[in-house]
Amino acid sequence: MGDKNGQVVTDGYSPEDGLNQSGCKPDVLIDKETNSLIICDLTNRRVVRWSRLSDTTQGEIVLDNIDCWALAMDDQKYLYISDMVKHEVRRYQMGDKNGTLVAGGSGRGKDFNQLSGPIQIFVDRKQAVYVSDNSNHRVIKWNKGATEGIVVAGDQGQGQAVTQLASPRGLFVDMLDTVYVVDMGNHRVMRWPKGAKHGTIIVGGNGPGEEANQLDNPVGLSFDQRGNLYIVDTMNARVQRYSIEWTVYDG
C-alpha cells in the first residue's frame, strides 16, 4: 500500500497471439498455489497462465477457442469461466479442455435456464455460481448441479429504482449470502441481502461524476480483510476505497 508506481507483470495490450503477448484482458485472477496469474485473453480467444516470477518471458495456454470474459476459482482449485458468445459458465479442472456446464448453456435469453451476457462471476464455498447477467440486468445464482438459476438481484427491467439494475458488472457475495454488485449503468454499487426484493445503494447513485460521492461507469469491486471496499471507477481513471459494514466471505 502507498506505492505510486506499479510494476508490469505481463505485456501491455497487443493484438498479436504470441505467448509473450496478449490482447484485451477483461479479467485476471491470482493462483497463489502456483504463484501465477490466470488471464482472460479475449482478443486471442484463450485463457493463459503467467508465472509471477520476475524472469518469466511468456505464458502458457490453459484453454483456447473460448470467448472468456470472467474467471473465478473455488477452494478446490476448479476454474470457472464465463463465455460471452455461448452465454454460459463452465467449471474446469486444470488440464480439462471441455469442462462442466454450471450456468446457462440454453442459448441467449431471459428464462431462468438462460443467460444474456454473463459478464462477471463469483463462486461460494458450496460451489454455487453467482452471475452478473449483464443484458438481463440481474444477478442470478446457480446452485451446484442446478438446471436453472435463482434471481438474487434485479430482473425488473433496466432502470434506476432500488428494485432494478442497469448492466451489472463486478460481484461479491459474503458469508451471509449478501450480494454486492456494481450497477454500472446507474453509476453505483448496491447491496442485496439474501431474499431481499430490493437493494440498498452503498456507494454512488448521484449520477456520473468525479466527486468523492460519485462514480462514472464503475466496473469492478473487491474487499480486503479489513472491510475496505475498492471500486474500479473506469471513466474517472481511478480506484476508490470506502469503509462499509460487511460480513467477510471466508472462501
What keyword list fits this structure?
Thrombin, subunit H; mainly beta; 4-stranded antiparallel β-sheet; 251 residues; signal; 2 domains; glycoprotein
General description of the model:
By secondary structure, the protein is mostly beta strands. 0% of the residues lie in helices and 41% in strands. The chain folds into 2 domains: 23-153, Neuraminidase; 164-250, Thrombin, subunit H. The strands form 5 sheets. Strands 1-2-3-4 form a 4-stranded antiparallel beta sheet, with no helix packed on it. It has a 4-stranded antiparallel beta sheet with strand order 5-6-7-8, with no helix packed on it. It has a 4-stranded antiparallel beta sheet with strand order 9-10-11-12, with no helix packed on it. It is globular, with a radius of gyration of 18 Å. The two termini are 23 Å apart. Mean pLDDT is 89; it is low at 18-22.
Quaternary class? single chain
Alpha-carbon distance between the termini? 23 Å
Shape: globular
Low-confidence stretches: 18-22
Write down how many β-strands occur, each being a DSSP E stretch of 2 or more residues. Answer: 19
The CATH architecture term of the largest domain is: 6 Propeller
CATH class of the largest domain reads: Mainly Beta
CATH fold name of the largest domain: Neuraminidase
Number of domains: 2
N to C succession of SSEs: EEEEEEEEEEEEEEEEEEE
Biggest beta sheet attributes: 4 strands, antiparallel
What is the fourth-level CATH superfamily of the largest domain?
TolB, C-terminal domain
- Strand-residue fraction? 35-45%
